[in-house]
Specification:
It is a single chain. By secondary structure, the protein is an alpha+beta fold. It contains 4 helices and 18 strands. Strands 1-2-3-5-4 form a 5-stranded mixed beta barrel. Helix 2 packs across helix 4 (258-270). The longest helix is centred in the last third of the chain and has 18 residues, at 217-234. It is elongated and about 85 Å long. One of its GO terms (molecular function) is nucleic acid binding. Residues 154-214 form the S1 motif domain. InterPro entries: CvfB_fam, CvfB_S1_2nd, CvfB_S1_3rd, CvfB_S1_st, CvfB_WH, NA-bd_OB-fold, S1_domain, WH-like_DNA-bd_sf. Pfam families: CvfB_1st, CvfB_2nd, S1_2, WHD_CvfB.
Length: 284
């Protein structure tokens, strides 16, 4: 006897009606369709399409709501709850929320998704046969994306982060293009599932994009200067940096390039807000 496949849509027959709902049958196997999960009133013998999953007790349950995320079928799902050391629960459109395991989330919880973020997922099973939400791999993403046109260069772009790491973050844009944000093109590492806004700095030959989350140079000077002033105020008016400081030290502290630091520092010097002495910068 074949076990009913959970995580998929099945055509089943209404066997009988009970107080809590309908008992559905297929190949000698039964599943309960609760009244809350039914879209209509059904007569015995009627065939209906339902999505199957395990309820809290582990029994096979059915819903007439057919989610876009199923076994081996990918779509976006919204994060509804995040639990440390366990993972993130997502809403696929049915009463039961699906878990994205901690094993499929970034190592650092600081870049885990927040409620309201979205993940591109499918359904799979854990070792006990329970349904899990599984984020898409790079191979899956490669099959889903479109080739970006060259005219996108230097244009604003928005998208959702589907992969993030120390090296950089990858997004799928609203038009299904793949974009990569190098770590030097962001001030902070975006969360997995975060919707971000940036601009295209390169359209590559393979149809993917390089994206920057940093403002244009002329727009970023004021923001970077404010950051330098904030560091000065937090450190008693002196910081061990000047226009000849090591680029990595600058990036590690201010999360900007040395060139951006020099532009911002130059503005502050010109405005008379800071001064440099003995390799240090002082607040005036």
């Amino acid at each position: 006897m074949h076990t009913l496949p959970i995580g998929k849509v099945q055509t089943m027959t209404v066997s009988r009606k009970i107080d809590t709902g309908y008992v559905l049958e297929k190949n000698g196997q039964e599943a309960l369709l609760h009244h809350n999960e039914a879209n209509h009133t059904y007569d015995e013998g009627r065939e209906i399409d339902v999505f199957l999953y395990n309820d809290k007790k582990g029994n096979i349950a059915a819903t007439a709501t057919l989610p876009s995320v199923q076994m081996d079928v990918y779509d976006w799902a919204e994060v509804v709850e995040v639990i440390p050391k366990l993972g993130a629960f997502v809403n696929i459109g049915i009463a039961k929320e699906m878990l994205v395991s901690v094993d499929d989330l970034p190592l650092f919880e600081a870049v885990w998704p927040n409620p309201g973020d979205k993940l591109f997922i499918t359904l799979g099973k854990d070792q006990n046969g329970r349904l899990l939400a599984i984020p898409a791999t790079e191979g899956v993403i490669a099959r889903e994306i479109e080739l970006a046109p060259e005219e996108l260069y230097n244009q604003p772009i928005s998208g959702t982060v589907y992969h993030t790491s120390k090296e950089g973050s990858a997004i799928i844009t609203e038009d299904d293009y793949r974009g990569f944000i190098h770590h030097t093109e962001r001030k902070e590492e975006p969360r997995l599932g975060e919707f971000v806004h940036g601009r295209v700095i390169d359209v590559k030959e393979d149809g993917t994009l390089n994206v920057s989350l940093r403002p244009l140079k002329q727009d970023s000077i004021g923001e970077d200067a404010t950051s330098i002033l904030a560091h000065l105020e937090e450190n008693n008016g002196v910081i061990p940096f000047n226009d000849k400081s090591d680029p990595e030290d600058i990036r590690g502290t201010f999360r900007i390039s040395k060139a951006a630091f020099k532009r911002a520092l130059g503005r502050l010097l010109k405005e008379g807000k800071v001064e440099q002495r003995d390799g240090m910068t002082y607040l005036k």
